Amino acid sequence: MTGGADAGAVADRGAVVVCRGVSKVYRQDAVAVQALTDIDLDIPRLDLVCLSGPSGSGKSTLLNLIGGLDRPTRGEITVAGRRVDRMEKGELADLRLRHIGFVFQAYNLIPVLSAIENVEFVMQLQGVPAAERTRKAREILTEVGLEGLEHRRPGELSGGQQQRVAVARAIVSEPALVLADEPTANLDSKTAENLMQLLVHMNAEHGVTFVFSTHDRLVMDFSRRLIKLRDGRIVADERRG
């Protein structure tokens, strides 16, 4: 494994995410842009965390680094006990497949697949037998309120229903962590509130750790911890009950 014998070491075994001295610099037209600077962060298991801040604050960059979708310029990132910053592409893909769920503002459902097929897709990649993945997909779709809509394709579902399919797909394999980038951005206020109530339920009932990146005050209000970023630095970290 890349990184040697200590690649699985974790700074705090009670944390699903640990960041130490994480910085990220982008190059734009030969100009260095400092997106994140010296981020230190621990996210315990079962937490419900919101990363907030204005555009350009670094919240989406931090979410992408935690999810292994990008690499830090400097620093250490541990997710589910494994050093993400030392992993090669294949290792990162396996980590995302087995330990991290994603919920995107654009839903990212496969348009030619039905709701149940979209939920089954990750389990299929994981090698879960067909009968088991169909059973689990049906159960989770019922839990998110989509019973009877299992065979509709994304284009036949409302935005809120599509986002529920995305949530079901993200948590069906019981990942250690779910990352949600602006999960309510394309939803009306009532649908957004229903979605957040669902995510809080999933956190409690399935033991999933959630990290949101958002501008939305509603998402902040539902989160138990609010981490504020400005100019690539954490400027506040508030526990809210």
From TrEMBL:
Q: Which residues form a coiled coil?
A: none
> Does Flavoprotein count among this protein's keywords?
no
A Gene Ontology cellular component where this protein is annotated is:
transmembrane transporter complex
Domain ABC transporter as annotated: residue spans: 17-241
Pfam families of this UniProt entry? ABC_tran
Entry similarity comment: Belongs to the ABC transporter superfamily. Macrolide exporter (TC 3.A.1.122) family.
Q: What is this protein called?
A: Macrolide ABC transporter ATP-binding protein
Source organism per entry reads Sulfurifustis variabilis
